[in-house]
Amino acid sequence: MSSKGNLNEALAGVLSGMDVIQTTYPFDLAHKGHSIDVEVEECKPGKVEEAKVEEVVAKLEKTLPRVKDLNDASFAKSKEPLVKSCKCYTCQNYNCGYLHHLLDVKEMNATILLIIHNLFSYDEVFRVLREPSTDLDSFIHWYLINC
Ligand SMILES: [Zn+2]
Fold first, then answer.
1. 53 CA distance to ligand 1 centroid (A)?
2. CB-hemisphere CA count at 13 Å for 20?
3. What is the mean pLDDT of residues 28-52?
4. How many folded domains does the chain comprise?
5. Interval between CA 90 and ligand 1 midpoint (Å)
6. Above 90 in pLDDT, residue 9?
7. Ligand 1 centroid – CA 93 distance (Å)
8. Which of 12, 29, 88, 106 is within CB 3.0–4.6 Å of 120 for a Cys-Cys bond?
């Protein structure tokens, strides 16, 4: 895959048969002060109606994955982690308010902490996809509805 490689593009690539994805997306997001906002723990794929792969790929390519912009002043007093169910170092130790503060004072640790979270989240989506019990079609449908 040789595009930005956001989660939607990567999943569209997987549906189209790609096996390897090389991307700077988690880093690019972090440098802008953004974090991936996907509750992977909520993923409980079930049986859903069939859809044509082409339609799903087209929808993935037209939409952008959910992200949080930690530069936004609305996060200034937030005591919440980036993602409640996330098990990454950043979410286990810091909250959105602190990350907003680090970005506000241009502290480089903000980018490092966001990279840790974004890489973890990106990998978590694909970890769920690799699980033998995960049905690809139902996962993609769940993702399109929730993310
Ligand atoms: Zn996290």
1. 30
2. 2
3. 74
4. 1
5. 5
6. no
7. 9
8. 88
